[in-house]
Design brief:
The chain is mainly α and 182 residues long. Helix content is 70%, strand content 0%. It binds zinc ion.
């Protein structure tokens, strides 16, 4: 799946992680005062949130790769010529990161960014394979090394799957951002 989809889904997982963290760590958003123990506890809580978001992003990438998809941006050029597919992917990824920065506020924005980058992180496999640095069998993600079958392009089903998860993630981020600012 294209990197921008992975970033959007990862970021949505980050927001979900932070917004449910209050159930596990009810005081996570409260200031500590001079207590060192409180600061330590707060650091552990935030590290858990960031770690869970990042891990969730990476796992979502591996799972999403097994859904039917078409890598539309990589394979079907828009505006830029086909040879510049990597630049297209990069620009779209940047745009989504920018939307997250604009749309969200406070620390949840940082959690969303970390988890979104986590979502795109396994694509370093594809970059390394494309550049000839590693063999496909050496890829870390089971969805890239061939251990797990990649989701195929099944026409309309793939389009619905890939755009469906993208729009769901984007919609969730949008409504969360609206609620935050409203
Ligand atoms: Zn992938």
């Amino acid at each position: 799946m294209d990197a921008y989809v992975h970033i959007a889904v990862g970021a949505a997982i980050g927001v979900l992680t932070k917004s449910t963290a209050a159930l596990v760590f009810p005081a996570i958003d409260e200031e500590c005062g001079p207590s060192v123990l409180c600061k330590l506890a707060r650091s552990i809580e935030w590290a858990t949130v960031y770690g869970t978001g990042l891990t969730g992003g990476v796992i979502s990438h591996v799972l999403l790769d097994t859904l039917p998809h078409g890598d539309y941006l990589a394979h079907y050029g828009l505006l830029l010529p086909d040879s510049l597919w990597l630049l297209r992917e990069f620009l779209a990824a940047l745009l989504i990161l920018l939307l997250i920065i604009i749309g969200l506020r406070g620390r949840i924005r940082l959690v969303a960014l970390v988890a979104g980058i986590g979502g795109a992180l396994p694509d370093l496999d594809n970059l390394a394979i494309g550049m000839g640095w590693i063999e496909r069998s050496q890829a870390l993600s089971p969805s890239h090394s061939g251990v797990w079958p990649q989701g195929q392009n099944l026409g309309a089903i793939s389009l619905v799957c890939e755009m469906g998860v993208f729009l769901l993630a984007l919609g969730y981020l949008y409504f969360y951002g609206r609620r935050q600012s409203g």
